[in-house]
Design brief:
Blueprint: H1 3-20, H2 53-56, H3 60-92, H4 102-126, H5 146-170, H6 177-208, H7 214-233, H8 238-243, H9 249-258, H10 260-279
Helix pairs in contact: 1-6, 3-4, 3-5, 4-6, 5-6, 5-7, 5-10
Amino acid sequence: MSPASQLAGIVARLCTASQKQRIDPYSELDWPETLEREQWFFSPELVSLAGHPRWEALDTPARQRLSFFEALNFFSLNIHGERWLVAGLAARLYTQSHGAVSPYLHHFLDEENKHMVYFGGFCTRYAGKIYPEKKLPFAREFAPGEEDFLFFAKVLLFEELVDVYNQRMAADERLVPIVRRIHLLHHKEEQRHLVFGRQYLSELFARHAPEWSAAVLAGLRETLDQYLAATWREYYNPEVYRDAGLADPYELARQAFAAEQARALRREVAAPCLARLVESGILEREPAP
């Protein structure tokens, strides 16, 4: 089967699955009026300070309050990521380069818009705010096909990391039910996005890479390394530590990111995705965690 035929088959199956498994974000979540913050909102093992001496010094109620702001940060990151994703998908609908996948891009766009309802609902109801976006886009020139490739590569990297967290926290019975439910609903649709993203990224690379120079390929790989590092840094947000009442939040964020336990967690979460990108030839090596 040709790559084009394989992609067409995947698009058709994903469209059918999206239609049959459509989720209504307004009826699937039963929002509590209030949430006491001395509960678990984020799995303790996934909290950005896990293993750090400051974490070890906190009692359980303080750790639980910190977990609330970790959840707020995670959901804020998803809002920013999906807002950028929705804009990028909409810009590519029915263009010549992406016409073959436009039927599924409609579902992808629709589902990402619904995900913002989940995350925004939590942030605005229980915190009254969303943490601001930290990434800054920089305009530059692109080789033919490079901008589209980088868009879908960044989408895939972001969603691969997020889905690991989704799966683990959807299954964590310590967490408050509304948080577990949000993670579960997000994961159900992200599974399809990941199937599409892995296949389409490989197709885009096979289509364009033979025309790219060694310099373009090296620059593209450096861009993905930088994007992954910038994405991970957002998981260590000084505003989280400040809101949780911890002193020296910026220094704490620096220490937390550099800690060996944190590096091990990032390596574990990202390893399957990075291994696929190396195996496909998109990356030459796995970036440092």
